[in-house]
Fold this sequence. Notes:
mainly beta, five-stranded antiparallel sheet
Amino acid sequence: MSSLDRAGRPADEPPRQRITIEDLVGLSRIGPVHPSPGGEFAVFTVAEADLEKSELRTQLHRAELEGDAEERALTHALGEIEEPRLSPDGKWVAFLTFRPQPGEDEEDDHDDDGEPRKQVFLLPVEGGEARRLTEAADPVLDFVWWPDAQGVAYLVEAPRPEGVKAWRRRRSERRDDPEPLHRDLRRVEVWLQPLEGKAERLLAGDPGISEVAVSPEGRRLAYTTNHTGIPSD
Length: 233
């Protein structure tokens, strides 16, 4: 019979390593899995922390569901990738991210509040170079594929008047941070962005819109709203 240590474990058992905060933060986290229409493969995000740079990198991965079940990363850039969604025909994956574009000023990279101007990016499911699909003036809040896979419907807040933008910039420069509760609630608009061509506004909307869906034949929109955008309403 083996002796026990103070913790009640066998004395000859190797010491256990304590789990640290760094261990927990360093775990890879897999996002929701999106299988292709035919079930041949699936795409999902993998989030990994870079402790030295204090950054979280979220990349898009593809895993084959047949044969050798190969898995590979489709994206390699820095930053976060959100809401990956496969097109109905299984040829494209669209996702939200922020990536500076050549020829743009730094002011174009962020909105009036200093938030990254996340847009919908498009990537072939076989991999390659992702291209920016939407050119919204403010960050895209959410999007869905059109049923024919020829575009996406997306949600974005209505732009502020130029005078309000300038006033907010001055406040930011003066570090005048207080913000009245529910003072700056903007309408949420619904836009249609085809794979090629200019975007078209479908709905002027209201401040409470949070989700949108397209009917299977592509003739109707459904959306959720509380009309005001105030969470307690």
